[in-house]
Design brief:
Helix content is 29%, strand content 28%. By secondary structure, the chain is of the alpha/beta class.
């Protein structure tokens, strides 16, 4: 899957309506405290959001006192995030940037990197592995990476959405349109008839864990619907916390190939 696929799919007005899919207050009640706990071991306040969307997670961590840089590949998502975050402002930068062009913004290295909202499946396998190595190098010693994704193990096997919890709480119907071991397509239907689809990689639980370890992360914990797990179950979403070892770290330019 090409890097620009994510950008193309959010164009033509979809990004402008993304916040109708996610009820910010209800989502914050579901995952805000959990995310705070997941990232509390970060060695400092510098945080990079590499798939900021309309700015939900960037806004949360800004309110928690982090210094946030946020990027997204979609120009329309970045425009919406800037409006939501009232950027530009001194404590946050929001820029359009493809993952293949990833570079630090305000900080040379970061104490935490987040890639949430099931964004990682927009990357193909080779792009994902290169990206994870790059993120490993961008983190300070002891830095934390958070990555989540839908439960594609269940979706591919059962050809149905998993019964576990969804973080989305808006008035939009999300349906499974097609799925196999390579890709999955979701449909998003709004009450006024607006309809869009997203096609992403069917990223498995074990595949991402293996990629995180191969990228050099010293410790990986995985959670299903906020419960610590060791294998794929029937959760709606999986979240992985990967930690950068405290020693033996190269410069950010040493691990891009």
């Amino acid at each position: 899957m090409r890097a620009e696929l994510a950008t193309d799919q959010y164009g033509q007005g979809f990004a402008a309506r993304w916040d109708e899919l996610v009820d910010w207050d209800r989502r914050l009640a579901v995952e805000g405290g959990f995310l705070d706990w997941m990232i509390e071991s970060a060695p400092g306040p510098a945080l990079l959001d590499i798939a900021c969307g309309t700015g939900f997670h960037a806004a949360h961590f800004l309110a928690a006192g982090y210094q946030v840089d946020a990027i997204d590949g979609s120009a329309e998502m970045v425009e919406q995030a800037r409006a939501n975050l009232k950027a530009p402002r001194p404590d946050v930068r929001v820029e359009q940037m493809a993952w293949d062009d990833l570079r630090p913004l305000s900080s040379l290295r970061y104490d935490a990197v987040i890639c949430l909202g099931s964004s990682m499946p927009h990357a193909g396998a080779e792009q994902r592995r290169i990206l994870l190595r790059r993120l490993h190098a961008l983190l300070n010693p002891g830095g934390v990476l958070l990555v989540d994704h839908r439960n594609f193990d269940y979706i591919v096997k059962h050809q149905a959405m998993p019964p576990g919890r969804s973080v989305y709480a808006g008035n939009v119907k999300v349906t499974l349109e097609a799925s196999d071991a390579a890709t999955t397509t979701f449909g998003y239907r709004y009450i006024d008839g607006f309809y869009r689809t997203l096609t992403v990689e069917s990223l498995s639980f074990d595949e991402l864990r293996d990629d995180l370890r191969a990228a050099g992360f010293s410790h990986v914990d995985s959670f299903g619907d906020q419960r610590l797990i060791s294998s794929a179950d029937d959760s709606g979403f999986f979240l992985h916390r990967a930690v950068r070892a405290a020693t033996g770290w190269p410069s950010p330019d040493d691990s891009t190939d």
